[in-house]
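User: Please run a holo structure prediction.
Assistant: Happy to. Please share the sequence and the ligand.
User: Here you go; the ligand is pyridoxal-5'-phosphate.
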Amino acid sequence: MSDAPSIAVRAQARVAERAAAGLRRVVREVEHADGVHLRIDGRDLTSFASNDYLGLAQHAEVVRAMQEAANRWGVGSTAAHLLGGHRGPHAQLEREVAAWLGYESALLFSTGYLANLGVIAGLMERGDVCVQDKLNHACLIDGAKLAGCELRRYPHNDVDAAARQLDAAADAPKLLATDGVFSMDGDLAPLPELAALARERDVPLLVDDAHGFGVLGPEGQGSPEHLGLNARDVPLRMVTLGKAVGCGGALVLGSRDLIDALTQFARPFVYSTAMPPAVAAATSAAIAIIRREPERRAHLQALIARFRAGAMQLGYTLMDSVTPIQPLWIGDTDAAVALSNALMQRGCYVPAIRPPTVPSGSARLRVTLSAAHTAAQVDELLQTLNDARRS
Ligand SMILES: *Cc1c(COP(=O)(O)O)cnc(C)c1O
């Protein structure tokens, strides 16, 4: 018999450690959801936590598109894309978004997490170098780990440091990867500078635009377009379909050659059942609404400005964000959790984000706004933030 602790014993100890530090995560059941209204533990709450930035997740037209496609195609896609699972709605969605964003080709994945694993591990090999922003989403980091390539991280949004990292890696094939909008801070990457750097070094730039797609840019194309760039500046782009689009899944966009390579080598694409075709059909319907109703983005931008002005007046510390992600900096973990709980008591759902999701000492309340909110609801949140802090 060995003295090594069993996996179960060790796992339990690690959970206990987290609990002792006040960092244990729990899953909360949402008993009812109607737009921004949630019921949790029997309590009715206004949610400021969702990524449904344009209020499309329960849009009647999107729901109807899903129902009609389910009537026609059934529920399951029955197979991986390469083995008969690639149905009409999947193909149509890939074509539509590629044409809209100006790419030759697109590849559909079941989630954004899998898309990033697939794109990095599908293109990078041992000995290659992947240069990434320190605050990139976990799945970009995990993609590099899965690829077995060398991962080099530069300080957040530090373009000179990114250049040094690229230049230090002599002759290896390289990839530069960044979030377009950073998920816990809400700020934008300096994409024009990063694109110029990548072009000078002849290294492809991959932008994960999970939080920019649908929300930013003149037509909602995303953070590159918001900053005056287009497909030529960003040869590889990942967009998620479960955030502003209100559905689920993700697309990787690029040249025909790169997408063909991913079709061969992106294991999360090759070895996974295609998403239900009705989800793809609903996604196409949601994107049609995004393109045709710019007033959703305008209303959202007005709410963002209203919230920032109000929170600033209350003395809260905002982060540098023009996006619907509007975190309130708290710092101390216990204080952030206490404030989140006090808001919940008063009817507002705003989760506290704690380490290890964010660096230690940088706990925050992560407020997200949606076009489904009214100005009155934003005012209510501000009033509640004021009351909760004073109590
Ligand atoms: C949410 C998110 C992902 C993952 O997308 P899912 O579709 O939720 O798996 C990837 N990157 C960023 C920056 C995200 O915020």
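Residues 26-53+294-390 form a domain with the Aspartate Aminotransferase, domain 1 fold (CATH 3.90.1150.10).
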